[in-house]
Amino acid sequence: MAAQVIYKILTADQWESFSSTGTFDGAPVDLADGYIHFSTAEQLPETAAKHFDGLRDLVVVGVLVERAGEALKWEKSRGGALFPHLYRSLETADVHSQCALTDWQQ
Is 0.85 surpassed by the pTM of this model? Predict the structure, then answer.
């Protein structure tokens, strides 16, 4: 895949927990599906609108694809597009960048 950085949107509570423990096992939807949902830069705006509309204090975490290793799978999802799915916990060492969703820019 061409993407070098993939993105995960976290609520403020999820970010706070992740920051303090160093590990993020996923949001409820991730836990139910068995992997952590990520988006590419191009997919992120639609993901934010579809799943986080009306929520405040969201944090975007950027992860380098190479850091995710073999636990990262590209799988068809919305409209047949390939989305990155991480089949392990996210660790703070994986985080390349983070910012408020309102500050996020490609």
Answer: yes
